[in-house]
Amino acid sequence: MNEFCHTGEDTRSEIDLLEDIGLDESVETAIPTLGAAKVPSPLIQTEQGHFVSDDNRVLVNVSHRCFEAALKAGRTPPSFELAGPRRHIYFDPTKLRCAIVTAGGLCPGINDVIRAIVLALYHGYGVRSTFGIRYGLRGFIPEYGLPVMELTPERVERIHEYGGTILGSSRGHQPIEGIVDALERMHIGVLFLIGGDGTFRAGAKVVEEIQRRQLKISVVAIPKTIDNDIYLVFKTFGFDTAVQMACEAIRSAHTEAVGAPNGIGLVKLMGRHSGFIAATATNALREVNFCLIPEADFVLEGEGGLLQAVEQRIRQRGHAVVVVAEGAGQRYVRGDKEERDASGNIKLGDIGVFLRDRFRAHFAEVGLEVNLRYIDPSYIIRSVPANVDDSLYCANLGQNAVHAAMAGKTGLMVSHWNGRYVHVPIKEAIKRRKRINLNSRFWMSVLESTGQFNLAVHPAETP
After folding, report:
1. CA 284 → CA 250, 416, 440, distances in Å?
2. Partners of 223 in the beta sheet?
3. I need a surface site. Which of 334, 369, 404, 449 has the fewest CB within 10 A?
4. Do 3-236+386-429 and 239-382+439-450 agree at the fold level?
5. Catalytic-role residue among 16, 20, 92, 227
6. How far apart are CA 339 and CA 344, in angstroms?
7. What is the DSSP string of 151-167?
8. What pLDDT does residue 1 have?
9. Which CATH class, in words, describes the domain spanning 239-382+439-450?
10. Is 382 part of any known ligand binding site?
11. Which sites are catalytic (predicted)?
């Protein structure tokens, strides 16, 4: 019988999230397994309650309205498997070999996740063979000649004190068959993928190829994106640290703006398709006058346009702070020829530099002298170590990834949802991108803080 977990601790914020992103309730929640788990877990437990079963479930949508509607319709509300250690596991720890790979851009906390996985495997389950794949998925491909890194408790002892990833990272597609060939050659039983949307898409194909070959290899993913735009994850690791660092940059911009006549502080933050960092930092500080995000693309010229709005702010208050996510306003900076990076992402134009130069030109045209300070802290934010909250979050993600893998589960992402750690099918996580809902209370809070209600916007382009 299914046992639903419901918590009051984070329920309010979770319901807000469902409103913020517009949750699609047609979510598949079944998690594939490699086979029956028959090996008694070596974990030493002081209480039986530390183990969970597949019958422990976490509701996808925690609102009472949705729950009652499902019951009235005679169907069970969709729910995710609760993450955590199982009483029986699939793999024999003494014979298991594991691999960890990190791909995509840097993010605070990657080393914390690596460390958590290694320590949970070694101390919790007695797994002695864990290898790090160097420089992303290319580390699997022989042509690159990249040796693996043996990961031991001694090797990862202090890596959480540093930013980046000790394994290195890279972007770009690699042949799926070559990746699975490498897993076979290395006799890997579990692959831990730490990455974002592109990495997960590759991971889903790796799972399909493993199943086609009828191999017993588990693939477990840990969501990593500084933009916080992975679907079905309440918050990705490193996001809190990114917002904290973004706030420091905004404070500096505000100080510069109020410290000079007609001062303008302009800050560009990460956010290719989703403006969570810019919007959250704006809400946290309440010192931003204009927050520009990809979901609410702005009008530059004319009545209600950004240039006119900033000019009015300067004439009335003598200073202004503008925060822009990197993916905002791309209609103004993207060239006629669409260029893509190694991962297939459309290369963004530099909206920060564009606004800096356009502001200067506009105020010169209207004969108003301004002092503009432009700050782009992106690479500093990406490269710092995780703060305490993120470090703890990373530890929990890594440990729960190990519990899932040891139980023989595969094709899943470990997520934090409805106040619990859960298993989400990778295929569901890549169906869409998490973006800010402009009709949500979250975005309304940004508008109330900045006062930009009258700023004209274009309909956002859906990536």
Report:
1. 11, 22, 17
2. 195
3. 369
4. yes
5. 227
6. 9
7. --TTTTTTGGGSSS-TT
8. 47
9. alpha beta
10. yes
11. 227
What span, in angstroms and rounded, lies between the C-alpha atoms of 323 and 281? 9
Q: In the chain, what are the domain boundaries?
A: 3-236+386-429, 239-382+439-450
Per-residue pLDDT tens digits for 302-352: 998 999 999 999 999 999 999 999 999 999 998 766 776 666 667 899 999
The two tokens of residue 445 are 């809070």
- Position 371 scores a pLDDT of 97
CA angle 44, 110, 146 (to 5 degrees): 105
Angle at alpha carbon of residue 165, lines to 160 and 171, rounded to 5°: 155
State the DSSP code for 18. Answer: H
- Residue whose structure tokens are 């958590």: 116
User: Is position 24 annotated in a ligand binding site?
Assistant: no
Q: Are the beta carbons of 85 and 33 closer than 8 angstroms?
A: no
Contact 411, 29 (CB under 8 A): no
Record the pTM: 0.91
Query: Which pLDDT band holds residue 457 (cuts at 50, 70, 90)?
Result: confident
Rounded to whole angstroms, how far apart are CA atoms 437 and 236? 18
Instruction: At 440, list the tokens.
Output: 């949500």
> Is 357 in the active site?
no
- Check whether 390 is labelled as a binding-site residue: no
